Protein 1
Amino acid sequence: MGERRVRVHLATDPGVPWYYRMDREKLEAAGRDFPDTLRQIEASWSDEDEGFRRGVRDAEILIGWKFPKERLAERAPALRWIQLNGAGVDHLYPLDWLPPGVALANASGVHTGKSFEYVLMALVALNNSLPRLIGYQQAREWRKIQSGTLPGRTALVIGLGAVGSGAARAAKTLGMRVLGVRRSGRPHEHVDELFRPADLRRALPRADYVVLATPLTGETTGILGADELALLPDGAGVVNLGRGRLIHQPALEDALRRGKLGGAFLDVATPEPLPPESRLWDAPDLILTPHVGADDIERYIPHCLRIALENIRRDLAGEPLRNLVDPALGY
Ligand code: OXD
């Protein structure tokens, strides 16, 4: 009997820069660790809608991120599962387009390295009042703000998936005490004290810095609103590299304008792209980066493809897939 072959369609989003593109060279490079699996794949590629429609016609597995979803059951009758080139799946909800029985897996783990560095940068910057000092520099004012160091200060990391793990490791590396919020309550190697989401309000008053690293779901939307911000110590800092809507943005802006917060470092906003007329751009003590904090441009797609190949290997071996998304939980 011949070796089992599997039809895989790799759909790059139209117009993305080279580092988000999937191509044969990247697949073959990622496949060096999976030579048998690579041999069993019959791949097709697209980077525009027509090619996508052609490619999914007989595909069993789709690898992509923001592909056309309408009438997918009809267009891709053989589809069994979708491997996503990213972690947060909120852009796919509601899931009414998902053909019955088709599973979703994400690329959780792909952001850990960069999120470690981003949070390290954000904590150091906030603790050194960098956003305020940049403002002084732009105003050509030689004004001093002295600061202390981070060891002994407390970071609260909300969400301890792969991104939150990078964040917790960054805070630990900086000698901080780390509090974590995790739904499962499972201990984490870089977290000193764990809280369940229901106990968030007990943790907030102890947080010199809050890092948001949780997926956006019905439960986490607005998890940091006016009431939660009020519970933070005066001068606390906020870092967000999850999704903009985790924070009630007007409340955050207000807390910055009133000087309640010492500063904020945001990689995400509502909406994205943030329109030029948004008042958030001018909020004091804020550094805003345009959703670039967690993706390593050299390693991003190669890492996603290794995650995909490991799942295809599992699929062919009849083993359970990794990183399956629970449609009810939203991650
Ligand atoms: C993600 C992202 O993968 O925001 O969710 O990049």
Protein 2
Amino acid sequence: MRRVTLTQYLIEQQRHYGTVSPELRLLIEVVARACKAISHAVSKGPLTGIGDSVGLDNVQGEAQKKLDIIANEVLMEANEWGGQLAAMASEEMAEPYQIPNRYPKGEFLLLYDPLDGSSNLDVNIAVGTIFSVLRCPNNCTEFDASSFLQPGSQQVAAGFAVYGAATVLVLTVGNGVVGFTLDKELGSFVLTDERIMIPEETQEFAINASNMRNWHPPVKRYIDECMAGKTGPRGKDFNMRWVASMVADVYRILCRGGVFLYPKDAKHKEGRLRMMYEANPMAFIVEQAGGAATDGTQRILDIQPSGLHQRVGVVLGSKSEVERVTQYHAEAHEG
Ligand code: AHG
Ligand code: MN
Ligand code: MN
């Protein structure tokens, strides 16, 4: 069997479609290399104590773990010197990080959630890293924090790593979605899924049901109908899954279909997940895999962001299910 590495995949994308410039390739390779380092740190579990809390909150008011901070630094240090980036933004940093003057600057902006699902660290459940690449507007002549505030449709690449039983890297450069598995002996990401497509037929949904009392009526209607099973309006039984690591929930949906919801509700008025480094990259990947992603009313990738750490409602996965949830919102709106 021909083993295709990440580097080879990216070079071939450039050769055949001209979509991955050497600068973009280097950027993705460096992110992937940082993910290997994070994967290694995560796999040590409690041996190092880096899954512990540091007693501080991040900009979102969430408890930071040592590993959140380490993963953030690994990504920052790996990406700052290569000359591909103008700036980076992260869930764990209140302000964007501009590439220091001692390094050359490039045309891209990198956004990331260094460790997604970090509440799962101390219980040995999969966590991951999510990233999104944008082009810096106007050749970055007037860079400021607002340079990041572009709708998700402008992303040039997005991906995520899952540090599970195996470490996988899912990537899109706008030409479908591919999956790599980390060969830990060789230290390289090997292409193991050359065309990830979300199955259309699904009987699985993912939602944190402890928020049920806060759900808006269209969400409640959709979940009630799923729960009603074979004798209900959907005429089939559904299964429920909730890992509480978005990377793991989305990876499962890419593999075997389903729908993931973290909607706006009475408690999470703007939603729970962050638009720029969680919802947008995942929405890009899901659409590229034949699925759909909305905030309940509109396509996530069309939303003009107004803040770096802005939150958004998320409904993503198998297209017909996402369309159904979105339809229920439209019907509720019409009364
Ligand atoms: P993070 O660890 O980066 O803050 O993200 C956690 C997110 C996401 O991964 C997951 O789907 C969701 O939060 C889980 O939220 P609940 O704890 O409310 O279920
Ligand atoms: Mn996250
Ligand atoms: Mn995180």
